[in-house]
């Protein structure tokens, strides 16, 4: 049976790879551990985390999209931390959980999973688990979450979602950015195709850049887990170009992505996306 792949990426941080589709990260603390994101809920990610360390677990959610919060049903006894601006998204894709999981395996797993897709389908829960009514502690910009000596500064980084959060671990010099900054970012379509969300994301990039002396790598939600922080400058070139008219993307469809896309350097920004 296929299992999550675990890889150590720093002295006290492990990547938990959900079959090449999405990353979660186990952060080892002195008093307890934190799992940053929970995958989409294919297979048992809690079992993978506890196989690394059996300390009590907290869950930090970068955002509540179902590929990052879809495994939350495994953590009914763990404290969960999330920005409340993402609460309305908990129903997005969650009411038909297993339908989403199957779609995700079909669109992402077909390119990233090295085995038979039927193995992934067999790991989808038989009935839809409850991923919409979990209790959580509200976090916001500037909150510090502690695992003992190891602490995480919460940075509110809207754009991909209204409540997206990054978690800055200065002790390891890592910024866990989820889908806020990675190799390919999605911003949803806005009414009348206005540029409001692009401007919000541009301001988020500037905010992250203010912290760049405090971390060496971005730790991202999809693909190879460590990303050099100079990609932030590539995204700033895109957002500033879109905002002042120097740059214009083209409509594309790729997998479940459908929208305008602009590229600079190593950065790829999908905006005005319908899905």
From TrEMBL:
Domain of life: Bacteria
InterPro entries linked to this entry: Metallo-B-lactamas, NDM-1-like, RibonucZ/Hydroxyglut_hydro
Annotated Metallo-beta-lactamase domain residues: 21-222
GO biological process, any: antibiotic catabolic process
SUPFAM superfamilies linked to this entry: Metallo-hydrolase/oxidoreductase
Family (UniProt): Belongs to the metallo-beta-lactamase superfamily. Class-B beta-lactamase family.
Name assigned to this protein: MBL fold metallo-hydrolase
């Amino acid at each position: 049976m296929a299992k999550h792949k675990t890889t150590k990426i720093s002295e006290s941080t492990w990547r938990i790879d959900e079959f090449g589709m999405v990353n979660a990260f186990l952060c080892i603390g002195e008093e307890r551990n934190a799992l940053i994101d929970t995958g989409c809920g294919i297979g048992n990610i809690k079992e993978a985390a506890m196989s690394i360390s059996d300390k009590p677990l907290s869950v930090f959610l970068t955002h509540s999209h179902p590929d990052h919060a879809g495994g939350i049903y495994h953590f009914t006894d763990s404290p969960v931390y999330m920005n409340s601006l993402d609460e309305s998204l908990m129903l997005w894709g969650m009411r038909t959980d297993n339908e989403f999981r199957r779609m995700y395996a079909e669109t992402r797993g077909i390119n990233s999973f090295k085995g038979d897709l039927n193995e992934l389908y067999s790991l989808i829960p038989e009935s839809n688990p409850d991923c919409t009514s979990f209790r959580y502690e509200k976090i916001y910009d500037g909150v510090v979450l502690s695992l003992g000596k190891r602490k995480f500064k919460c940075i509110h980084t809207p754009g991909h979602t209204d409540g997206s959060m990054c978690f800055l671990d200065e002790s390891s010099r890592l910024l866990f950015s989820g889908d806020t900054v990675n190799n390919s970012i999605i911003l949803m379509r806005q009414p009348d195709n206005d540029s409001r969300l692009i401007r919000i994301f541009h301001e988020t990039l500037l905010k992250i850049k203010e912290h760049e002396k405090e971390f060496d790598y971005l730790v991202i939600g999809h693909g190879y887990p460590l990303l050099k922080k100079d990609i932030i400058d590539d995204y700033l070139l895109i957002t500033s170009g879109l905002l002042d008219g120097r740059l214009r993307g083209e409509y594309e469809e790729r997998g479940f992505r459908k929208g305008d896309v602009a590229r600079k350097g190593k950065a790829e920004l999908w905006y005005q996306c319908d899905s």
